[in-house]
Write a structure and sequence with these properties.
Blueprint lengths: L1 E7 L3 E9 L5 E3 L3 E4 L6 H11 L7 E6 L8 E2 L6 E2 L4 H5 L3 E6 H11 L5 E5 L9 E8 L3 E8 L5 E6 L11 H11 L16 H11 L9 H10 L3 H25 L3 E4 L2 H5 L1 H6 L2 H6 L5 H5 L3 E4 L4 H14 L4
Parallel strand pairs: 1-5, 5-8, 10-13, 13-14
Antiparallel strand pairs: 1-2, 2-3, 2-4, 6-7, 9-14, 10-11, 11-12
Helix pairs in contact: 3-12, 4-5, 5-7, 6-7
Length: 325
C-alpha cells in the first residue's frame, strides 16, 4: 500500500510517498522539502504537496513531529502550525493516520534499516545487538532522544523521550565556562543547550573569551562550515569540543536506558561523522567511572539513511496498522 510520510521540524516539512510491500519492505519516493514559514498551516503545506503530486494523494498519512505528540492539540516550538489529531482525517481527506515524535520515528528507522545503513563510530565493530535496548539520539535544532527494545522473536517496541532536556553535566574547566556563559541566559541549562546545532555559537564564543579574544557575533552555519573545513582554528576547536560533549551525553543516555547499543542520527551527525571518529567522542562516551569497561563494550553506530524521519514515519505506520498495512 501507499501512504504519505511527513517529517515536520521547525524549519522544514519533508514529504514523500511511501510504499509498504507485502513483505513489509519500505520504499520512498523522492522527497519534497517545504519551508514551514512559507505556509500558514500544515493543511496548506499538505495542499501544496498534493498539487505537486498531480492533485491526488494516498488515503493514509504518517507524521513524524519535532516535539511532544500527546494531547488534543500539537503545537510547534519554532513555527505557528497547530495539528489537532481528532481532525486529521477530515482536514486531510485520509482514512488512517499515525502521529509520532520525530525521534520515535528515527528509532523505528533504526529498527528496520539494513546493516549497510550504519557506520561504526566506537565500541565493538560488529552489527548492533539483535535483542535488547538501543539508545537513539541526534543533535539538530535540538537534541532528540528515543530508545527501542528488540524482542527475541524479531518484533520491537519504541519509546519517545525528552532526554535532550536532562541537565548538562560539565566535566572540565572549559565546560564549566560554557555552563557559566549559558547560565547568564537560562536558569536551567539542559544538555541540548550544548549538544545541538545552534549550540556551537556558545561553545565558540566561550573559547574566544577564554583566550581573551574579542567575542564575535557568530552564525552557527558559518562556524560549522569553517570548523569542519579547518579554515578557522577556533571554530575547529569548538567542533571538537562539541564532539566531546556529544560523547558524554550519548554515554549518559546509554547508562540511563540500560542500552546494549547506541545509534547517532540526524543530518548534523552525518556531517561530522569523520570528526567524531577522530575526536575524543569515544573516550568521553566510555568515561563513566567504575562502568568504563562496560561502556567500552557497547557498539556505537551512525545511521546514514538519507531520510530516517520519513522512513521511520512509514515504519511507525506499519507497526501500528500491520506489517504490510
Amino acid at each position: 500500500m501507499d501512504l504519505v510520510a511527513v517529517d515536520i521540524g521547525g524549519t522544514h516539512a519533508r514529504f514523500a510517498i511511501a510504499t509498504i510491500g507485502a513483505d513489509g519492505a519500505i520504499t520512498l519516493s523522492e522527497p519534497e522539502t517545504l519551508h514551514t514559514e512559507d505556509h500558514a498551516s500544515f493543511q496548506t503545506a499538505w495542499q501544496d504537496f498534493r498539487e505537486r503530486q498531480g492533485g491526488t494523494l494516498p488515503d493514509a498519512v504518517s507524521m513524524a513531529i519535532a516535539g511532544p505528540v500527546g494531547g488534543e492539540v500539537i503545537r510547534f516550538t519554532n513555527n505557528p502550525w497547530i495539528i489537532r489529531p481528532a481532525l486529521v482525517e477530515e482536514k486531510l481527506g485520509v482514512d488512517r493516520f499515525t502521529i509520532v515524535n520525530d525521534f520515535e520515528a528515527v528509532a523505528h528507522a533504526v529498527a528496520r534499516a539494513p546493516e549497510e545503513q550504519f557506520v561504526h563510530l566506537t565500541g565493538p565493530d560488529g552489527p548492533l545487538p539483535a535483542t535488547g535496548r538501543l539508545s537513539v539520539l541526534g543533535p539538530g535544532t535540538g537534541l532528540g532522544v528515543a530508545h527501542l527494545y528488540r524482542e527475541p522473536d524479531g518484533t520491537y517496541r519504541v519509546s519517545a523521550t525528552e532526554g535532550g532536556h536532562v541537565d548538562f553535566a560539565p566535566l572540565d574547566l572549559i565546560e564549566d565556562a560554557i555552563l557559566a556563559r549559558l547560565r547568564k541566559r537560562h536558569n536551567r541549562v539542559s544538555a541540548e543547550r550544548v549538544v545541538s546545532g545552534p549550540a556551537i555559537v556558545d561553545i565558540y564564543q566561550t573559547l574566544a573569551a577564554m583566550e581573551k579574544r574579542p567575542v564575535p557575533e557568530a552564525d552557527d552555519v558559518e562556524i560549522w562550515t569553517k570548523g569542519l573545513s579547518g579554515e578557522d582554528s577556533l571554530a575547529a576547536a569548538a567542533v571538537d569540543r562539541f564532539c566531546l560533549s556529544l560523547g558524554s551525553v550519548a554515554g549518559d543516555m546509554a547508562l540511563a536506558h540500560g542500552a546494549k547499543g547506541v545509534v547517532i542520527a540526524g543530518g548534523l551527525g552525518y556531517r561530522i561523522r569523520k570528526t567524531l571518529v577522530a575526536s575524543g567522542f569515544a573516550e568521553r562516551f566510555a568515561a563513566k567511572g567504575r562502568f568504563q569497561s562496560m561502556m567500552a563494550a557497547i557498539p556505537v553506530k551512525l545511521i546514514v539513511h538519507p531520510q530516517p524521519g520519513l522512513y521511520g514515519a512509514a515504519a511507525a505506520f506499519a507497526a501500528q496498522h500491520g506489517a504490510s498495512a
